[in-house]
Design goal:
heterodimer, A: 7-stranded mixed β-sheet, B: mainly beta, 7-stranded mixed β-sheet
Chain lengths: 112, 119
């Protein structure tokens, strides 16, 4: 199984300031087809998760452009350029290169 | 608009079998391009993938749950179901029904149903 490790556990941020979340995979997420299957999801309090970004950096339709993803191989980052109140929640990375699908432990973004 | 809705008992006794159903609208569970399955989340904890099924071929289980979990479909009702045997307190969680494309994260989720295991 591919183990996904996220840091930090918690990220207190001032409104309007940036936030950054790291995710490391225990093995490369590059598929033999050349694609890298790393996703980012947001879970607001009391709601199911919502897909934000797939294949490292592709934003889902409707996701604000203050969210961006980058990385390669085993190391990935989700960045929020200017945190807004609606961004509060837990963020998860997910590898979908192979079964079993595996999630990172989550990073809680909260407002200072 | 794809919608998923879970249903099932909110309370299960230890050692019993959990049965959950997910009703899908806006897409067909027989689609050759969509996986359908289940993910769970214990209270205050992270997400755990349980199972994904591609109707045209291929069912994949989390190895940690394979011996206890069974997914099935009812095409006449456009529903999928999950059975999880020998329930313990560690299985207390919100269970989500979801859809995903090959190699992509789930993009549609049900609202989730909380299942508590207690005598």
């Amino acid at each position: 199984d591919i183990v996904m490790t996220q840091t930090p556990l918690s990220s207190p941020v001032t409104l309007g300031q940036p936030a950054s979340i790291s995710c490391r995979a225990s093995q490369s997420l590059v598929h033999s087809n050349g694609n890298t299957y790393l996703n980012w999801l947001q879970q607001r309090p009391g709601q199911p998760p919502r897909l934000l970004i797939y294949k490292i950096s592709n934003r889902v339709s409707g996701v604000p452009d203050r969210f961006s993803g980058r990385g390669a191989g085993t190391d990935f980052t989700l960045e929020i350029s200017r945190v807004e109140a609606e961004d509060v929640g837990v963020y998860y990375c997910l590898q979908s290169k192979q079964f079993p699908l595996t999630f990172g432990g989550g990073t809680k973004v909260e407002i200072k | 608009q794809v919608q998923l809705q879970e249903s099932g008992p909110g309370l299960v006794k230890p050692s019993e079998t959990l049965s959950l159903t997910c009703t899908v609208s806006g897409d067909s569970i027989t689609s050759s391009s969509d996986y359908w399955g289940w993910i769970r989340q214990p209270p205050g904890k992270g997400l755990e993938w349980i199972v994904s099924l591609l109707y045209s071929g291929g069912t994949y289980y989390n190895p940690s749950l394979r011996s206890r979990a069974t997914i099935s479909v009812d095409t006449s009702k456009n529903q999928l179901s999950l059975k999880l045997t020998s329930m313990t307190a560690a299985d207390t969680a919100t269970y989500y029904c979801m859809r995903h494309r090959p190699y992509i994260s789930p993009d549609y989720w049900g609202p989730g149903t909380l299942v508590t295991v207690s005598s």
